[in-house]
Write a structure and sequence with these properties.
8-stranded mixed sheet; globular
């Protein structure tokens, strides 16, 4: 018995401790300066996910000065690393660490963002030696990922998390109508959406101050570009593997969106997660205030089911890539 214990102790002591994930800066070329992000690598060889942020001034951690401090992308990166998956999270052109990439962050289109993603894919492959990179688009980032995947070189596949499946004008109408406080502004908002969908700008004087963040003159060019895309049409043309992940307590993107994407891409895998909201946190009820409170809680972990769904999709596919042929 003593000998057995000594042997077991010797074997345990001889095992090398698991290396901690290494987090470091990474750059990719932008139009006028560098795009910047953070890479987390759990090992020398690991599949790598490029996390594409959602709408507006959302930074590489998933936070926004518009009231989001939950750090969902930073927490997702850390959790994926524990599963042996590397990640790169990024600041969009003209914002935060990528402020020098363009002079005006608002002078952008979805096609511009898609080109930035291709630049990131090249930079990540060069840094890691990976044959391809997985694109994980969250919210509006899902649309950007699908647009980038129309040119599939260097892309392993897509992971669309809380991503719109309907045209963004349709989704915005639904979001505005869902909040009773918006009732006095709905007629003006709906008229503005109609005009932007038609490719026309809205007169600045006609925009109520409460609607300025959505329809300010400086962002209307981007909104016209955004509204012109149908996410289902884009995903239908993607030949790479696709995972669609949708929380069922998401206040911003509905389950109907994920199902429309899945219907357009029958080979895609759809995972519905009960109790998960838009910032990937677990919420215990349908209470709207409690749900929104998670947006400002940086200490709350992201739902384990989100990490499991992504890891269970990527790791078998990566193993197949690495098998000798």
């Amino acid at each position: 018995m003593l000998a057995d214990a000594l042997i077991a102790l010797t074997l345990a002591s001889s095992e090398a401790p698991a290396a901690s994930p290494v987090e470091s800066p990474i750059e990719a070329p932008g139009p006028s300066g560098m795009l910047r992000g953070t890479i987390v690598r759990p090992a020398a060889e690991a599949p790598c996910v490029l996390i594409i942020p959602g709408s507006g001034p959302t930074d590489r951690d998933g936070n926004s000065p518009l009231g989001v401090a939950a750090a969902p992308y930073r927490k997702l990166a850390a959790d994926l690393a524990t599963r042996g998956i590397a990640s790169v999270r990024i600041d969009k052109r003209g914002m935060f660490g990528s402020a020098g990439a363009v002079a005006d962050a608002n002078a952008v289109t979805i096609a511009d963002y898609a080109q930035d993603i291709h630049n990131w894919v090249k930079a990540v492959r060069l840094r890691t030696g990976a044959g391809c990179v997985w694109l994980l688009g969250h919210s509006e980032g899902g649309l950007v990922a699908s647009a980038a995947a129309q040119r599939p070189d260097g892309i392993c596949g897509l992971i669309l998390v809380a991503a719109p499946g309907r045209k963004l004008g349709t989704l915005l109408r639904e979001q505005l109508r869902a909040n009773p406080a918006n009732a006095p502004l709905l007629d003006q908002a709906m008229a503005a959406i109609d005009r932007l969908e038609a490719g026309k700008r809205v007169e600045a004087a006609a925009i109520h101050p409460a609607l300025q963040p959505l329809f300010a003159p400086q962002v209307q060019g981007f909104v016209i570009s955004l509204f012109s895309y149908d996410p289902a049409e884009l995903i239908a043309r993607v030949s790479k593997p696709v995972l669609i992940v949708q929380g069922q307590r998401d206040l911003q993107v509905a389950e109907a969106d994920s199902r429309r994407l899945a219907d357009a891409a029958p080979r895609a895998k759809l995972v519905l997660l009960p109790g998960v909201n838009h910032v990937l946190k677990a919420v215990a009820s349908d209470d709207r205030a409690a749900n929104l409170a998670t947006y400002a809680d940086p200490d709350l972990p992201i739902a384990a089911a989100v990490v499991d769904a992504i890891a269970d999709f990527i790791l078998p596919a990566d193993s197949a890539h690495r098998e000798p042929r």
